[in-house]
Amino acid sequence: MATRGIILMNLGSPDSTEVKDVRKYLLEFLMDGRVIDYPYLARLLLVGGIIAPLRAPKSAEAYKKVWTKEGSPLVVLTKQLQQALQPFVAAPVEIAMRYGNPSMQQAYDNLLAKVPDLEEVIAIPLYPHYAMSSYETAVEHAKAVHAKNKYTFKLDFVKPFYSEPNYIHALAESIQPHLQQEYDQILFSYHGLPQRHMKKADPTGCHCLKVDNCCEVASPAHATCYRHQCWTTTQLIAGALQIPKEKVGFSFQSRLGREEWLKPYTAKRLEELPGEGVKKLIILCPAFVSDCLETLEEIAMEGKEEFLHAGGESYTVIPCLNTNPLWVNALTAWMNDYANGSTTMLL
Ligand SMILES: C=CC1=C(C)c2cc3[nH]c(cc4nc(cc5[nH]c(cc1n2)c(C)c5CCC(=O)O)C(CCC(=O)O)=C4C)c(C)c3C=C
Ligand SMILES: [Fe+2]
Ligand SMILES: [Fe+2]
């Protein structure tokens, strides 16, 4: 059998909540041409001259609200997932961040230190849904670091798992206990994307955001359609838990800049919902498998304030899967199926 290693890939966080570290992180993140996809010089002027310097102090304050003794929640929870998974798989597991630390190269080198005759690495981008700015950049970065260092081991990737039954089961079971309370709506809030990115990722050039109900009509575009994949996760969870259609909400959070992003915007919905009679809200963020700034600060703190201020009465946030044993089971099943010759979960 091949000598293997596994890498859990997540987005990454600043090294600390100091403004200089947050600025450095924002620069690395937003200078990624798959995130801010403007021509290099325009991107450099916008990100280096405006966004990173102006946003860093505000983001640093937000990070301070959620930072833990061990560091950023996203990185700490990804490490905890590594520790939870390791006992169930034969191959060593490392973690890597697309931006910041630990880097992809560190992860490869850690695996090589443990397995000098490493033949194959399976990278698992921890994003259920495909987006150029999350899944695709993680994959392309992993390939670029692999090529630059002339590593000889083979590199494979787990594909977006938005509809995979073990993942859906884990997510549904994590939601189920919260549905025992009285609620008016359960809002599935996904990280947003510029609408332009959706059209850019459409290989047909004529489907996404161009056809009525584009995400609900069959199309080859769905393999790279973020909105379709978010919609599918929502439908599968609502079906598994038999949540009535009128109690399911769907929105997109974390907008940046002036372009139009996917709608409806979560922040706007949180202001509108109480006026529509939704006083008791349950909210979750299935675009993330690990809690992070966007779930702990934007949704659990700011979002709650917005909703209650608009007249809402109760606001329950469902945590991300983090180290949920069923989620660990899902990852274990994919890795063990692969070790037994199945390539179903590979890109
Ligand atoms: C679900 C995956 C993600 C997609 C898609 C995504 C797109 C995207 N993000 C920005 C800008 C920012 N995102 C920020 C934080 C952040 N984003 C994701 C995931 C996705 N982003 C995560 C997990 C996090 C949290 C990181 C953490 O340390 O906890 C930030 C930084 C924080 C802030 O200043 O608000 C920015 C900026 C864009 C522009 C984009 C698509 C074009
Ligand atoms: Fe983001
Ligand atoms: Fe679509």
Automatic annotation (TrEMBL):
Protein family per UniProt: Belongs to the ferrochelatase family.
The encoding gene: hemH
Keywords from the named record: Cytoplasm, Heme biosynthesis, Iron, Lyase, Metal-binding, Porphyrin biosynthesis
Catalytic function, reaction form: heme b + 2 H(+) = protoporphyrin IX + Fe(2+); Fe-coproporphyrin III + 2 H(+) = coproporphyrin III + Fe(2+)
Listed GO MF terms: ferrochelatase activity; metal ion binding
Enzyme nomenclature, EC number: 4.98.1.1
Binding sites annotated in the UniProt record for Fe(2+): 191, 294
Keyword Metal-binding: yes
Function of the protein: Catalyzes the ferrous insertion into protoporphyrin IX.
Superkingdom, taxonomy of origin: Bacteria
Name assigned to this protein: Ferrochelatase
Xref: Gene3D superfamilies: 3.40.50.1400
GO term, biological process aspect, one: heme biosynthetic process
Pfam families referenced in this protein's UniProt entry, alphabetically: Ferrochelatase
Gene source species: Limnovirga soli
Enzyme class of the recorded protein, top EC level: lyase
Cell compartment(s), UniProt: Cytoplasm
GO cellular component: cytoplasm
Main location: cytoplasm
UniProt pathway: Porphyrin-containing compound metabolism; protoheme biosynthesis; protoheme from protoporphyrin-IX: step 1/1
